Amino acid sequence: MPSPQITINTMTTQRLAWAITGSGHYIEECLEFMLTLDNVDLYLSQAGEEVLKMYGIRLEEIKAKMPVYRDKAASAPPVGLFYKGYYHTFVMAPTTSNTIAKCVLGIADSLVTNLYSQAGKCRIESIVYPCDTAPEIETTAPGNKKFMVYPRPIDLEATDKIRSFPYTQVVDDVDRLIVAVKTRLATL
Question: What backbone torsions phi and psi does residue 88 show, to the nearest 5 degrees?
Fold first, then answer.
């Protein structure tokens, strides 16, 4: 397995970059699908790492299957991999309303928001699964307990706005995420 410290694409196959933020919205289903894919690097925001723990997901098990980059540096050095042709696609799933709002405003002050920004600047396709896509949403809490959430109008506005961004496809549920990623991979 390549080291997460790789700075040049010496491989013949480009990879998929997948980011998880602090949303638990169907995180287990997102991870289950992600772990079926080949050539994936996982990027975790600090909150994403915390959420994995809340859901009982062991980071060590993920690290055994793929490189994992964590938000530990102010300048987010791994974003340079987009400029070296290392990635063909960027996926943010699941994505918090906070991350969506920052992306919409062009704020790139964390590893994940910087990844989205750089993917766009490099005209690399992004597939985004926001946690706030409708006025009423069923979600899953730790322990697999289902409950309803009611996103604020400002969160829904940000989700609607990011839908219009170039090189960005927004999906509204895990099934559409799976279709979007598989469709993207089939075009490469």
Answer: -105, -20
